[in-house]
Amino acid sequence: MKKKKKSRGHHLHVQRKRRSRLQLSDLATNVLSSIVSRLSLRDAIRTSVLSRQWKHLWCDHPNLRFHLYMLERRRRRGSAPVTEHDLIALVNRVLQQHSDTGVDLLKVSCALHNEHAHHIDRWVKFAIASKTKAYLSTLGWPAGRPERYSFPCHLFGASNDDGSYLRCLQLSSVSLNLPAQGFNGFPNLTKLTMLDVKITDQHLECLLSKCSLLEFLGIACCTTLTTLRAICPLNRLKHLKVQDCRSVKNIEMNCGLITLKYSGPMVPLQFATTSSLRNVRINLFHINSTLRIFRRLSMISDNIAALDYITTGFPSTLQHLETLKFIYLRHLRLELNIFGGRKTDALDYAYLLDCAPSLEKLELHMCMQQCGHVPYREEHGELRSLPWHPHTHLKSVHITGFFGHKDQVELALHILRCSTMLEAMKIDCRVTIMPEDNHSLIYKTREYLDGYLVATAFVQAADQNNVVEVLGARKVFFTATDGSERFYFVS
């Protein structure tokens, strides 16, 4: 009897059936380990319950991040809150089971202090033994401000390999004291960040001298520092960020920066060279002032003396710099928080167009407090004009907080006159920035409407290329009872 020939469709069905039997567990162990390494640490540990094959796959996880949130999600409603002791137990348990190899990052985020030093020391030793590339310690301080944890720099001196694998180091709310001898430093460290770290000027200088490959240095809220100095050459240091170190009186670095971000009082800035400096962000405030003048800034800030600091004081601190020019600057965001007395003249900031000849986008956000609201009228006198030359790169301008004061009008007209390639200028009467310490400040609708009327009458009227758009208020037309068309303003 002749057998029936199986159809091609039957073979395809068998092939699909065979393919469906392929399981994830059939993959090689190294492939599975690679898959697990892409999960979060919490999810990677959970895979250990799947089977014996999966039980230890997570032990090679390269990114060890610990924070209380990992335990909060497991806490049942009504149970006791998660504490730092629970997180300490978790960290110790995980590190004990880890294979101790291939660790890229070890990060612990928890409010710990010197009482837990024996646990944290053990974690640092694990980072050294596992050749961790990034150690991030965001410890913070619990209530009551107990004694700070003293970071064990002495552990990085037992051999030449200690710390040599570390590329990134972030320390927060710790005390850092270098040993008198035997400290090898971090020869391959490229990024160092210190937040609220208690360290002396001498120890910081010594630390930097042992980080020859450093590319980024960030220091914030380190109140014990009075001088930030690096006499030894830091040829690879290109990015420096110093924020709210209110005791610092001088910054002297033997490097050539590309990016400088500084927030604090006016201090001398000295660098070996400024030929590569392209991105400067300065946020100036007075130490003894109860009002914090600025909230944030993208390049340059303003108070009564800040413009002088930009045009004369800041350049004078930079060796070999004769003229302040931001040749490579394309986008500038400037926040002017003008407080009381109207001693600041907005027209002075026309100088910034000369500073940045390649500027393409300018954002000018103003916030005026207790300045007296006097919108410009023709009887207030003729508008001033400054000497100017064409700016051939500026294409976009955005001004906010425009109340129609005379110097605001003069600045807007100067920008409009100089910018030969301008494609769009938006003038918004509404305030988009607020100081941190005055959230209750509310501007009246009248100020917005006056700004709208002045911007329309003097700036938009001078626009010959139809690029000016005035925002923040608008005309609403209606028909009166007598049949005539009238309008009113809404903001």
Automatic annotation (TrEMBL):
Location of the At1g61320/AtMIF1 LRR domain: 94-431
Pfam families for the chain: F-box, LRR_At1g61320_AtMIF1
Every F-box domain range: 24-64
Protein name in the entry: F-box domain-containing protein
InterPro entries, per database record: At1g61320/At1g61330-like, F-box-like_dom_sf, F-box_dom, LRR_At1g61320_AtMIF1, LRR_dom_sf
Source species: Digitaria exilis
